[in-house]
Amino acid sequence: MTRVVSLFLPSWSTDRLRRKGGDAAPPLEAPLILIGREGSRRVVVSADAAAQAAGLRPGMPVAKAQVLVRDLLIQDADPVADFEALERLALWVLQRFAPIVAVDGDDGIVIDTTGADHLHGGEEAMLDALIGRLAMSGISARAAVADSWGAAHAFARYVAQPAFVAAPGHCPATISPLPLEALRLPAAMTHDLRVLGFEWIGDLLLQPRAPLTLRFGPELGRRLDQAIGAAAEPIDPVRPADLIEVRRSFAEPIGAAETIARYIGKLVVALCERLEEMDLGARRLDLHLRRVDNQRQAIRVGMAVPVRDAKRLTRLLCDRIETIDPGFGIEVLTLVASIAEPLVRKQTVSALIEEAIPDVSDLIDTLANRVGERAVYRAAPLSSDVPERAVAQIPAMAPDTGATWPGHWPRPARLLPRPEPIETVALLPDHPPVTFTWRGIRRRVRRADGPERVFGEWWKRDAELVAVRDYFRLEDEAGERYWVYRAGDGEDAATGSHRWFMHGVFG
C-alpha cells in the first residue's frame, strides 16, 4: 500500500532568513514579517510565530500590521531564494529518508515513503526524526503520513500537532471534518463554495458530482478523488545535478519477479562501470520503477561502507523485489547511486603478513536493510565514570577510535536501560546487602564484593556536586551475579537517598 508523507513548513521564509542571518539574526521573540507588493499595495507575505501570535496574517496591509504591533521587524520577501532553499532541503530529505521526494508548493515537501519507514524505526519514529532534525536547525515543521498525497497534505496542515499518522487504508470519513482549504483548491473556488453553504470536505462528499462539475469544472472532483485516494497523483521527484544513474526502457512492459531481477543485475553492472570510471563506491542505491499507468515506485538499499561489487549490490536489491507492485507492467527501470563516496582500498593480505580480518560489512548491510539502519549498531566506550554515560551507540562499521573499556573493575555484560529500585537488608555504611528483592523475587546473597565508589560529574550538573554511588557485585544462592548500587555514602544524606538499585546482570 502506498504511503505518503507531507512535510509542512508554516514559517519557512522567516525561518530561512533567521538561519541565513546566524548570530546577527533577530531574536525569536521579536515579531518578524516579510513583505511584498500586490499591485500598488504593500502586504504581508510571511509572518513568523511571534507575529502570528500578535494577530498578523499573510495578505494583511503592512500599514495595518505596523499599527497592531509596535517594534515590528520588516524585511522584503525573496520568493526565489525561498524556493531554491526549499529545493536544497528536498535534496537533503532525498538522501536521508526516501528515494522519491518533491517540493510541494512554496511551504512544503512531499515524500513517498512506501516500504522505507522500517529503515527508520516505523512511521512515527520517522516523522519524529524528520521534525526533530529540522527543529535543531531552527526550522519549525509539521508532518503527516497517509495513503495519498492529498490526504497527507490536508492532515499536515490541519491535524498534525506536530505529527500525525493516518491508519493504512483510512476511509474518506477521516478527512470529512477538515475545511475546504485542505483540498488545495484555488482561493476563488473555495470562496464560491462557501457562498453556496459548503464549509467542510464532508459536505462535498455527500453531494452528487455532476452538478459540482458543471458549476466548478473537473478540478473540484479531481482534488476530492486525490484526497480520498480514488485518483492517482504521481510525484515528480527532485534530482541532483551530479547524479550517477543508469536507465533501461522496455518496449514491452515487464512484471515477473525473475525478469525484474535479471534486469536489476544488468543495471547494477552498468552502474558499477560508471562508478569505477569515477573511482567511487555506492553507499546508497535507489531503484526507481515507472509503471505503464505512470505510477512511480522505488526501493532503497544502503551500505555501511562504499561498495562496487556488482554481485553484492544485486543481491541486496533483489532481496526487496517482493515489495514491488508491478501493476500492469513496468516500462522504465532507473538505478541511481544517491550517495557515492571514494572507494577505500585495502592491502591484499598474503601468507607473509598477519591473518586477514574478516569482512562483516556484507552481513551488516543485509541486516540493516531488513530491520533498519538504527537497529544495527555497536557499543563504544566513552570517557565517563558514570556507567550509563560510559557507552555510546555508533554505526556498526564506524572506524575504531582506539578507546578501550576500563579494566580495573569488572562491568556486567547486560546493563539495564534504567536502574531499577530494589529492597535490601544491609548494614550501613560499607557492608553489602544480606538479601535483596528485585522484581518481586527475594534473593539471599551468598558472596559479595565491593564497594566501588563512583562520584558524580559535578562539571555537568550542580546536583552531582556531592553525589556518590557505592557499587557491589552480588552472587545469590543460585549462582546468578548482579551489579547493584546504593545512592549515597551511607552516612551523609546530602550524597544521595541511600536507596538501593539494580543496574546490571553478569553473565
From TrEMBL:
Its cofactor is Mg(2+). Keywords: DNA damage. Residues 1-121 form the UmuC domain. One of its GO terms (biological process) is DNA repair. It catalyses: DNA(n) + a 2'-deoxyribonucleoside 5'-triphosphate = DNA(n+1) + diphosphate. Its EC number is 2.7.7.7. Pfam families: IMS (PF00817), IMS_C (PF11799). One of its GO terms (molecular function) is damaged DNA binding. Belongs to the DNA polymerase type-Y family. Monomer. This is DNA-directed DNA polymerase.
